[in-house]
Amino acid sequence: MMVSVSARKRIEAIERDVIPSMFVGVLSKDDKWLKHTLEETLPKLEARALHLARECKKSGECKEDDTLCNEERISAMFKEASNKLKKENLVRKAHSRYHH
């Protein structure tokens, strides 16, 4: 028997687990990883989260004013994650430049 996880729970997991996990060991990640994450992973994950938010509202699981399902907030969260990853990458590059 397969258990279906609610749209709300999946949004919570993306926010609580998936995005923070991208920053684990970020200083040891390379340019290829960063490029893939910024151009592929984050946009796909954002589209998924926005789809889940709409699904959540449609099903009544989230109310219209529920911040978890607020599409503007979700997009802002992904923009912030993207900017933070770019910044961490600059720190990594500067760090490796001075320690070789």
What's this, in brief?
This protein has 3 helices and no strands. It has 100 residues and is mainly alpha-helical. The N and C termini lie far apart (54 Å).
How would you characterize the overall build of this protein?
It is a single chain. With 100 residues, this protein is mostly helical. The chain has a domain at 33-98. It has helices at residues 7-21, 31-59, 71-98. The longest helix is centred in the middle third of the chain and has 29 residues, at 31-59. The protein is elongated, with a radius of gyration of 16 Å.
Describe the global form: elongated
Gyration radius, in Å: 16 Å
**Count of helical stretches:** 3
The arrangement of helices and strands along the chain is HHH
User: Low-confidence segments, ≥5 residues, pLDDT <50?
Assistant: none
- Given helix and strand content, the structural type is mainly alpha
Mean pLDDT: 88
- N-end to C-end Cα span: 54 Å
Largest sheet: none
The percent of residues in helical segments reads over 70%
Q: Strand portion, in percent?
A: under 5%
Number of strand segments: 0
Characteristics:
100 residues; mainly alpha; 3 helices
Q: What is the secondary structure topology, with strand pairs?
A:
Blueprint: H1 7-21, H2 31-59, H3 71-98
